[in-house]
Amino acid sequence: MRLDGQTAVITGGTRGLGRAMAEAFLAEGASVVVAARNPYDIKELADDHGDRLLFHPTDVTDETSVAELTVAAVETFGGVDVLVNNAGVSRDGRIARLSVTDWNTTLATNLTGVFLCTRAVIGPMVARREATGVGGRIINVSSCVAGRAAVGAAAYSASKAAVEMFTRTSAAELAPKGITVNCLSPGYIDEGMGKELASNDRAWESYRGRLLSGRLGRPSEIGATAVFLASQDSSYVNGSVVEVNGGLMWAA
Ligand SMILES: NC(=O)c1ccc[n+]([C@@H]2O[C@H](COP(=O)([O-])OP(=O)(O)OC[C@H]3O[C@@H](n4cnc5c(N)ncnc54)[C@H](OP(=O)(O)O)[C@@H]3O)[C@@H](O)[C@H]2O)c1
């Protein structure tokens, strides 16, 4: 029970990788606030962990909505120890045809959302540290395309590269407050956005040769890394980008 007594806020925790991280955190004893716009199939998880799971309707692009999320977490579980900035969208399109709406939606969700949620938890994390002596943990979720060029992913990869830089700056600014900030960079995972790759034979063939593991990642492998970054086991890890991508090479 590496997260016993801890409260984690996971944005985009209703499905995909966020859901896998929520399940992993619950299994390690944490209370979890799942934040997304729609509840989807969170009911089953809520039935199993009713007293330790809260779904809070949240739009991470909206400052007021994010502020309400933090208030709900503090009122329900008494504080916030861990924030996972996982909510994300991908709007693919070559630059020549990419709409401003798709560009703005991608940046607002993947980057501004990370900024708003990070800013909102600083106060509660500092208060928690004063009360318990345990510092906060922030885990941002980027992507293997943050540092690799992928045709059609200009908005998405630019937003994720920015998240990695935001991680380093946040780690430097928040270290004096006892908060560590790290980034989890997934490769192609057999869940959420990654499932589309697996179902597209041509795309999968072109990526398989670049994967040292030769397979897609499992959602549980993302959950296990997130638990490590959220727990005291990672006490000397700060400002890092942890790649969980099965050994994805830069070129085939
Ligand atoms: N799956 C992969 O292979 C992979 C690889 C690399 C990186 N990633 C990253 O991992 C994260 C999760 O991806 P995923 O594949 O699990 O995606 P997903 O299945 O599409 O889930 C995205 C989650 O984000 C939430 N979300 C989207 N916009 C939101 C908003 N404005 N406010 C609050 N919540 C919002 C969604 O809920 P609502 O729509 O109801 O709000 C949903 O819960 C993303 O940051 C993604 O970039 C995934």
Please outline what is shown here:
Helices cover 46% and strands 14% of the residues. It is built from 8 helices and 7 strands, in the order βαβαβαβαβαβαααβ.
Would you report the number of β strands?
7
Summarize model confidence as the mean pLDDT.
Answer: 95
Give the CATH class: Alpha Beta
In CATH, what is the homologous superfamily?
A: NAD(P)-binding Rossmann-like Domain
Give the overall form.
globular
Q: What percent of the residues sit in helical stretches (DSSP H or I)?
A: 40-55%
Bound molecules: NADP nicotinamide-adenine-dinucleotide phosphate
- The termini sit apart by 40 Å
Rounded radius of gyration (Å): 17 Å
CATH T-level fold name? Rossmann fold
CATH architecture: 3-Layer(aba) Sandwich
By DSSP (H or I, 4+ residues per run), the number of helices equals 8
Which regions contain 5 or more consecutive residues with pLDDT less than 50?
none
Spatial sequence of strands, sheet with the most strands:
3-2-1-4-5-6-7
Structural class: alpha/beta
Could you describe the largest sheet, including whether it forms a barrel? 7 strands, parallel
Model description:
The protein has a seven-stranded parallel sheet, sandwiched between helices. It contains eight helices and seven strands. The chain is globular and about 50 Å long. The chain has helices spanning 16-27, 42-48, 63-77, 100-132, 154-174, 193-199, 201-208, 219-230; strands at residues 7-11, 31-36, 53-57, 82-85, 137-141, 180-186, 241-244. It has one domain: 3-Layer(aba) Sandwich (Rossmann fold). It has 252 residues and is of the alpha/beta class. Bound molecules: NADP nicotinamide-adenine-dinucleotide phosphate. NADP nicotinamide-adenine-dinucleotide phosphate is lined by residues 11-12, 14-18, 36-38, 58-61, 86-89, 109, 141, 143, 186, 188-189, 191-194.
